[in-house]
């Protein structure tokens, strides 16, 4: 893992630019998607907040001077990197801490998805989504740190977890759950996971029974992802500690991130040799 000095890593956030997003939001989530709604940047303000929180944690004053200029300035900076506004792109925003720091963006074609994936599953017919991803559980624990709480370029632990699960390509429809030394699920290597509620009845403040899903609390060591914030804010899920030992082979789950949205998954505890 990186040493923790400002020279050894950068703060990052990955999001999707998708020209179809404004229409999808207007048609299916006009009252349940965060402002500003008519933007092709997926969960845009959440990404800015995430970068600010990381810069504050690491005391990156130069980075904060740029980030705290606000959403309009942030959007203008991103716009300058988009090569073709008619196509979807995967943006990897990179923030360094140095005088005059702005941002750099690695832009690559985004994997094609059904646009409704960018919305919460209960707002769409997402349960009919195609082949679910395989969700493995890491065989070794990961110690929580500032580098699991905040997303940075220091991601060696996540890469190692993916390799232990046999995931060698970002194109594979597979994910691995990172587990802390207490045996609690922290997060996925590139996603936030959601599982069926364990034990007890649903929350009394959940009369329509949408809160049937849970995600690990940040106290378990995982990252405050943008889609996680969206799912919690709109009542798709609640926080609950999830012991890895309680996961069941073949159980349904969901995973999400800021590039692919929400993806149906299935837990696989017995990997093929």
UniProtKB/TrEMBL annotation:
Organism: Aspergillus cristatus (Chinese Fuzhuan brick tea-fermentation fungus)
Organism placement in taxonomy: Eukaryota, Fungi, Dikarya, Ascomycota, Pezizomycotina
InterPro entries: Aminotrans_IV, Aminotransferase-like, BCAT-like_C, BCAT-like_N
Name of this chain's protein: Aminodeoxychorismate lyase
A GO MF term: catalytic activity
Pfam families with a match to the protein in the record: Aminotran_4
Signal peptide extent: none
């Amino acid at each position: 893992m990186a040493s923790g000095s400002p020279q050894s890593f950068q703060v990052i956030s990955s999001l999707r630019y998708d020209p179809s997003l404004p229409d999808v939001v207007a048609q299916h989530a006009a009252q349940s998607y965060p402002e500003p709604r008519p933007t092709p940047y997926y969960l845009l303000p959440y990404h800015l907040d995430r970068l600010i929180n990381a810069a504050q944690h690491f005391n990156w004053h130069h980075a904060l001077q740029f980030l705290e200029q606000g959403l309009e300035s942030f959007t203008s900076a991103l716009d300058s990197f988009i090569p073709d506004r008619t196509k979807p792109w995967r943006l990897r925003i990179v923030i360094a801490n140095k005088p005059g720091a702005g941002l750099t963006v690695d832009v690559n074609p985004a994997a094609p998805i059904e646009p409704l994936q960018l919305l919460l599953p209960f707002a769409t017919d997402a349960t009919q989504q195609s082949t679910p991803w395989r969700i493995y559980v890491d065989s070794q624990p990961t110690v929580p740190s500032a580098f699991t709480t905040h997303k940075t370029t220091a991601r060696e632990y996540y890469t190692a977890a993916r390799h232990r699960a046999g995931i060698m390509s970002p194109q594979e429809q597979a994910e691995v759950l990172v587990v802390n030394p207490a045996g609690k699920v922290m997060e996925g290597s590139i996603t936030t996971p959601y599982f069926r509620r364990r034990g007890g009845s649903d929350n009394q403040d959940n009369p329509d029974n949408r809160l049937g899903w849970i995600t690990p609390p940040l106290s378990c060591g995982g990252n405050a992802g943008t889609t996680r914030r969206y799912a919690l804010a709109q009542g798709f899920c609640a926080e609950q500690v999830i012991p890895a030992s309680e996961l069941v082979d073949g159980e349904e789950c969901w995973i999400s991130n800021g590039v692919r949205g929400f993806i149906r998954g299935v837990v696989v505890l017995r990997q093929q040799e």
